[in-house]
Amino acid sequence: MQNKIVFISGASSGIGEACAYKFASQGANLILSARNEKKLLQIKKEIETKFHTQILILNFDVRNRDHILQSINALAPEWKNIDILINNAGLVIGIDKEYNGDTDEWDTMIDTNIKGLLYLTRTIVPIMIENNRGHIINIGSIAGDAAYPGGSIYCATKAAVKSLSDGLRIDLVDTPLRVTNIKPGMVETNFSVIRFRGDKKAADNVYKNIKPLTPHDVADSVYFAASAPEHVQIAEILLMPTHQATGTIVYRNEK
Length: 255
Ligand code: 8X3
What we know:
By secondary structure, the protein is of the alpha/beta class. About 45% of the residues lie in helices and about 15% in strands. The protein has helices at about 15-25, 35-50, 65-75, 75-80, 105-130, 150-170, 190-195, 200-205, 215-225; strands at about 5-10, 30-35, 55-60, 85, 135-140, 180-185, 235-240. 2-hydroxyethylsulfonic acid (8X3) binds near residues 143, 185 and 247.
């Protein structure tokens, strides 16, 4: 991973932040993007004190297509040749039924999880094709394999991430580029706090009496896929806590 350039969206927290630490610890240079510039600067500072690495901050919302295009096009040549794109930015808001959800929240999820991922892919993959090397790692979800109660829109966005990953893998089959879809189950981050619109207690209940994955567990899988030999394409990884079996079946040890 030495001196490779890794672009991570949604890098200011959770899985994105954990990926930043993991790849920096293995010698990669990072381009970190997110909406929260203050948090990005803090992460950059922390990582740079721990590891010998260079970090560039790009402060944008993946929903803003023009901003993405301008930021990537303006990159200095030494940063532009991105080796690995980790499409991590994504979120869930609400647990409403499909017939009574908040349509603004739907727009936020669809625009971030699907369109934001597409904008970054559309901007960065042509650079990779030009360089004849690259790896696109999309953070999907177990939620994309089957819908669950209260998750209709979010599950649909993650099903889209699966289709978009599969479609891109087909489109790139005649190139050395690889495409991976990482599908985590329950991971303890601020993901559930946002889902429950800031209700920390409700979010904590999701992980009660079960040991969830940490963002670092997911980052390890991302790194595993990224560090496979060049002729090996890890198409998907589905990972979940040992006491989770599907998107809806978990065992909680309440003894
Ligand atoms: C997050 C996983 O299904 O527990 O994508 O909400 S889930």
